[in-house]
Recover the amino acids of this structure.
């Protein structure tokens, strides 16, 4: 094929690169000049050019000479000149589904796929740790490598990593799911579905849910949390469900042990009509308790319970239950899973302790949805708390009313920053929205332009014995860069205000 890829954004780049690798002639076009893209994107485009992709940038009306096939990026507006030219041309159309099938054709090992609104990254890495403990060579693709996982997957294919690996463990965010919906998964997991990225789906929760539900169709074995029981009921009556014991229907703390006894005695824990919970977990000091009852790939009934050493905190517990269900459904044994959970040391920027700054314990966390923020705040309990907050808008506008209100209930001080890592500019409005939402809070409220300034002010408005917690999505855009800014600001604050 002679292909033109219209749009050099997050969808167009991986499509163009993989088509070129597959032996097709590829030209990628965009009205933006290469200098208008973020530096990381410029590097990717230059790499693509060195591999043989023709860059046709700064062009509003691309030439179609010699072109027989088009990929039209989903973000290209209908009023764009290129859109009109393409629609009037008689070209074959290369779709996202075609791309997914092409990617799948290059991956001849079993694939574990993990999607959801929160918890994808930590679950992906926990599953990887368990498989590595079992001796597998694991090809892992997650947003810890790069924010755009579709580009991580394509890069791995081009480098031949699947051929050197025994199994693939792929984090599948909504953008990657849009491109990779035709991947065939040995085990797929849908962790949860919460309101997020709706601005990319015309404000429709239904459309967002449909995007996530690709995994139910394409998974040989399907794992999901009880939060999704109604969503998956028709699509996957064979779903394997997991939950923390506290989230079970009609849960009573005084009867916690009875739930584990039920599972151990082959009794069923009903969560809905015709649906039962197959894996349950509970936190313990330095450990996690898990009980299970399910049918594996050979239709053998498996049941039991165990306690594993586990040194994580907060939302990691629920993700550990998910990782156990995924790896056990694949066929790994309990002892390997226990060892893998014990080996897991957590992830950077996920409830990560970064040090003591003049008597203040400082943690950073990339949570930005209500559910993740609640887990992080609950873990810190009744401490005197200073929140250092990102600009909560990245390339996606987020409603900050409930988020700001929640944080105001926990915080003694809220320092909201305005720098947007995606657009590389200060935008104070999202910071003000967060603080305004905490209308009934007695917290001291402070606005800063940059993260360095915010970290300095967090020191200024705190005292020894306080805890500083950073929250927000900018960390996932540039983890190392944001961490450096936070540490720089904290150190300057310690010099300036002590």
């Amino acid at each position: 094929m002679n292909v033109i890829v219209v749009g050099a954004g997050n969808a167009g780049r991986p499509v163009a690169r993989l088509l070129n690798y597959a032996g097709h002639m590829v030209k990628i076009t965009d009205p933006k000049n290469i200098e208008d893209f973020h530096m990381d994107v410029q590097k990717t485009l230059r790499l693509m050019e060195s591999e043989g992709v023709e860059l046709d940038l700064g062009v509003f009306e691309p030439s179609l000479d010699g072109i027989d096939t088009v990929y039209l990026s989903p973000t290209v507006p209908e009023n764009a000149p290129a859109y009109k030219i393409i629609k009037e041309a008689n070209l074959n159309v290369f779709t996202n589904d075609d791309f997914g099938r092409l990617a799948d054709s290059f991956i001849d090992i079993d694939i574990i796929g993990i999607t959801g609104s929160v918890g994808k990254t930590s679950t992906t890495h926990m599953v990887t740790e368990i498989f590595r403990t079992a001796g597998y060579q694991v090809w892992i693709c997650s947003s810890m490598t790069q924010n755009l996982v579709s580009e991580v997957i394509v890069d791995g294919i081009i480098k031949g990593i699947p051929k050197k690996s025994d199994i693939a463990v792929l984090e599948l965010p909504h953008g990657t799911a849009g491109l990779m919906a035709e991947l065939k998964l040995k085990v797929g997991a849908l962790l949860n579905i919460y309101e997020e990225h709706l601005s990319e789906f015309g404000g429709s929760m239904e459309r967002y849910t449909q995007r996530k539900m690709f995994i139910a169709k394409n998974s040989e074995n399907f794992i999901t949390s009880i939060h999704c029981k109604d969503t998956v009921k028709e699509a996957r009556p064979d779903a394997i469900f997991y939950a923390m014991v506290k989230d079970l229907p009609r849960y009573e703390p005084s009867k916690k042990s009875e739930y584990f006894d039920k599972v151990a005695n082959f009794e069923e824990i009903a969560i809905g009509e015709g649906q039962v919970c197959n894996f349950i977990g509970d936190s313990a000091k330095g450990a996690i308790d898990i009980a299970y009852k399910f049918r594996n790939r050979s239709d053998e009934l498996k049941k039991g319970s165990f306690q594993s050493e586990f040194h994580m905190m907060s939302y990691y517990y629920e993700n550990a239950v998910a990782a156990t269900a995924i790896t056990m459904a694949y066929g790994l044994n309990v002892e390997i899973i226990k060892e893998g959970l014990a080996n897991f040391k957590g992830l950077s920027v996920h409830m990560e302790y970064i040090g003591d700054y003049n008597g203040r314990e400082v943690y950073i966390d990339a949570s930005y949805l209500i559910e993740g923020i609640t887990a992080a705040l609950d873990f810190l309990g009744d401490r005197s708390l200073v929140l250092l907050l990102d600009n909560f808008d990245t390339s996606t506008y987020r409603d900050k009313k409930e988020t700001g209100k929640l944080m105001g209930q926990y915080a003694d001080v809220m320092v909201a920053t305005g720098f947007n890592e995606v657009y590389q500019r200060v935008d104070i409005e999202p910071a003000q929205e967060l603080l305004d939402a905490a209308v009934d809070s007695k917290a001291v409220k402070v606005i800063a332009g940059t993260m360095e300034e915010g970290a300095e002010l967090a020191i200024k408005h705190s005292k020894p014995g306080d805890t500083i917690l950073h929250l927000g999505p900018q960390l996932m855009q540039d983890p190392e860069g944001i961490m450096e800014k936070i540490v720089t600001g904290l150190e300057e604050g310690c010099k300036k205000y002590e």
